[in-house]
Amino acid sequence: MQFSMEVTPKVDVSALPQQVREVSITYLPGVDCREVVAQAVRLRQLGYEPIAHVPARSMRDRPHLTHYLTALKTEADIRQVLLIGGSPDRPLGPFTSTLDLLETGLFGGLRVGVAGHPEGMPVLNERECDRLLALKNQYARDTGTEMFVMTQWSLDMPTIHRWLDRIEAFNTLPIYLGIPGPTTPATLLKFAQLCGVKTSLLGLRNQSGRLGKLLTVQPPDYLVDGLAGRIDHFHIYTFGGVKRTRDWLTARPSDIAIPA
């Protein structure tokens, strides 16, 4: 079993768990792309494999995208990226989707991640999300691009199983299934509203009357253990709790594949 995790450009990465090798770096609206590059450099120097986010709607134009990718490659020896649509607000340039980015032809030689949505998206229904993932699978087959799927985080086991069942007929890409690191349900409730994970949000709201549980740190073991037969790579969203995630991974049984 393998684990990766997500960090922001400003997180102190000196204390990341040694049980992970791949670390994705967020690129949120308004962030200078140089901050993402600098974090990728730090991760590379520490021996991790950085995965830089490339949000379509934050790219001002093709030169901006080219400059960003060139800096990632030359300064951080980047080998993997995660392409996302980004903020649903008005795009800064001509790119509005992952497919727009892929069609530029600028990602040759890179391993390319694309987003998966077990709980759907606020602006797209379930069928449309699946259709877009099928198109990205087709792109990988047609071009020979090495690709993988990195999903939004989810707490709901039945929803994850239903999503895996739905995409089984067409998806051949490796899946990095998003899960929350150890944190309180109260924190998850806040981020669920921001991230649009509606099924998980409903479940958390149903817990809102149990204040004691909302304030207790909950580890995601039930997800990892319950999905172990179908998923062998989990991507951890820490919500600022890097130390808690490190402690949890350290205490996990030896089913974790420790990076060489």
TrEMBL record:
GO MF annotation, one: oxidoreductase activity
Q: What Gene3D superfamilies has UniProt attached to this entry?
A: 3.20.20.220
Q: Which domain of life is it from?
A: Bacteria
Supply the alphabetized keyword list.
Oxidoreductase
Q: Does the keyword Oxidoreductase apply?
A: yes
Report what the protein is called.
Methylenetetrahydrofolate reductase
Species name: Leptolyngbya iicbica LK
